[in-house]
Amino acid sequence: MKNKSTGLLLFLVLFLSANLYSQQWQTATLQHSSGLREYSIYVPSNYNPQNPASLVLTLHGLGDNMTNFRNIGFDVLAETNNIIVVCPQAIADPFAGTSWNSGAGLSLYTPNANVDDIGFLSSLIDKVKQNYSINPNKVFACGFSMGGFMTERLALVLNDKIKVFASVAGTFGNAILPVAAGTPGRPVSIAHFHGTADNTIGYTTNNYGSSVDTMISYWKTNNQSVSTPVHTLLPDTANDGYSVDHYKYTSTVNNSVIELFKVNNAGHTWLSSQNDISYTQKIWEFFTRNSSTLSINETSASVDFSMAPNPATDYVEFNFSSNNPNFGSATEIIINDLTGKTVLSKTFKPVDRKYRLNLRENALTSGVYLVTVKTGNGTDTIHKKLIVK
């Protein structure tokens, strides 16, 4: 009897735990020019408006739906990483089933070509930002198959709102290729995952859009990336018949990153923790690594300053050069973290062209910061990197 009671209690605990995540998924609607649109949204149980969350947009494939696609696991990551997850619903095309206007299609037909999905997804991001506290530098998008094609299109035309992208088994759609050139307007960090045995959206050729290599080549040109990537082979940890070649392209002139995960022998599927690679986990890692939009570019002017020690622990002392009298007057110091948030702003007057800043008193924790110093009359603005241990 005791064993039965223990078993029942364990069952109830597991049942309640399993249903916690599903209960936090809510279905909502948004009125848009394309009609009344549906989406699922997951808000972590520890959401706090004082701590802006990341927003991850997840786009399902052709013929799929938001309820099914929300099972890729971002809700689990949300609980420990402060993520709000949104899974929108595509509209049904008369011939192809639920489909995004991604540009993916055959030569004579592109599903839902007249549906304003770009406008819908843009409005959806705005609505979530109105209802929740979202870090604007941590708005991400990913998708599978047709959703992957849509993610690539978003990277071209909606990268002002969405900062980092990841597509799985979806490239540039046929209808996008003629107009793709010049559309991003900025370097874009993007990851791509694709199986070499994908018979639906082929790795080298597919009927609906570009090859993987053509797509990667486009992003390399757009981002001014290095021609030769860093190539590694991911550990072969699972007996699944797959192996993963990882290619990473960086740029010497900006902070953009392109990563390609070429999954040998994998088909048209979303791989999980049971495989050599979990797409959801790798996508989130890519998002977090590349979500800092603040560029740490140091500049100089007719007057300069130094900071010591750097790296610093308790304090940092600013020493200003003597060739500009402006730094003998009121001087403004602004310190931003890597998200672009201003963590300190103050005006001071150097004494003997020196100023000591107590890091602990000003709550500067360990990290990398961009220090901006402006003269009293604003004629000189200088940026330097500060590392706090």
UniProtKB/TrEMBL annotation:
**Subcellular locations according to the entry:** Secreted
Query: Keywords assigned by UniProt?
Result: Carbohydrate metabolism, Hydrolase, Polysaccharide degradation, Secreted, Signal, Xylan degradation
List residues of the Secretion system C-terminal sorting domain: 309-388
Q: What is its main location?
A: secreted
Which Pfam families does this entry report, sorted A to Z?
A: Abhydrolase_2 (PF02230), Por_Secre_tail (PF18962)
Annotated signal sequence range: 1-22
Domain Phospholipase/carboxylesterase/thioesterase per the UniProt entry, residue ranges: 51-206
Tell me which domain of life the UniProt entry assigns to the organism this sequence originates from: Bacteria
- Name of the protein described by the UniProt record: T9SS type A sorting domain-containing protein
Native source species:
Chryseobacterium herbae
